[in-house]
Every structure is written in structure tokens, then in C-alpha cells.
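Our example pasted here:


***
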Amino acid sequence: MKATHSLVLLATIAFSATGGSYAQSAGMSMTGDGMSMKSADKPNNDSQAATHRTDAVVKAADPSKGNVTLAHEPIKSLNWPAMTMSFAVKDKALFKKLAVGNKVHVAIKKQGADYVVTEVK
């Protein structure tokens, strides 16, 4: 009976050790309640460099603060639905094309934690 308990204990420890390391490598973490599906905190260099494009309508623009509010179409490359949101604008010269009510085609890139408008057509 004692050998059976020891075997079960060893199997549990081995399973926990391999399961925990797999969870961490998959961007998950172990918590007191079980596994959390939180994504890893490491930046993804591919998404940092990627340019995403969409059509949008300018809802508000504030050159003094360097941001624009766009009602944009879905952005498939980011798996984003259509929505209205605010973006930083990389170059103040782009505000010439960002008048309220304008229909525009924009390019955005992730810079740090934010997405920034880098082109406007």
C-alpha cells in the first residue's frame, strides 16, 4: 500500500512539473485556481513591424494632442471587428488628410503598447 502511494505521488509530481513548464512555454501561467490563459508578456517582434490597413471615417482629430478618432472597418490582420477608436498619429503632416468626416484609407503599426497611424490616403 505504501509503495502505491509513493508511485502515485511521484506520478503527480512528474505530471505537475511537465504540465507547468508546458503551460509557461505556451504563454499560460499556473494560478491557485488552475491555469490562466493570459498571453505571455514578451513582445512579438513580427506584430511590432507589421503594417495593418483599413478604410475608416474620421470622427475627431486633435493635432495638438497628436491623435485621431476613426470609425474603421474590420482589420483582418489583427482580427479586429469594425469599431470606433482613437489612434496616435506618427506625423503631424498627416492631419491635412484627417479632417472630420473624411473617408480615408489608413495604415497603422504597433509601437510599444499603442497602434499608431503611419499613412493616410
